[in-house]
Each structure stands twice: as structure tokens, then as C-alpha cells.
Amino acid sequence: MKNKEKWECANHTAGNLCAFFALVSMIASVLLYLVKASMEAMIILFFVLYGVAVLAVLIFPARICKKFDRL
Prior knowledge:
Elements: H1 2-34, H2 39-70
Helix pairs in contact: 1-2
């Protein structure tokens, strides 16, 4: 049962992180549009934001669920 609980924990955490980064990217898009940022700035922000998002969604849920296992 421990593996199923671990899976549920990681899946729930990854889902929350996806929702968080979706919200952050929508806010960033609106802000960049309002300040009329250059295309280069938008592309750079896109790669940075999505690089951080992918790493966070892949790494963070596994680490946080391992910590909860030890408690």
C-alpha cells in the first residue's frame, strides 16, 4: 500500500505544481503584453519559465514524497 500512497502523493503534488505554473505563465504573459516587452524578452522568459516548471514538476514531487515517507 505504501507504493500506491507514494504515487498518489507525487501525482497530487505534480498536479498542484502544474496548476501553479499555468497561473504564473498566464500572469507573466499578461504583464509582458501590458508593458509591451520585446519579442526577445518574451522568448527568453518563455524558456526560463518552462525550464523551471519542467524541472520542478519532475523533481519536486518525488523528493517531497520521500520526505513524508520518513516521518
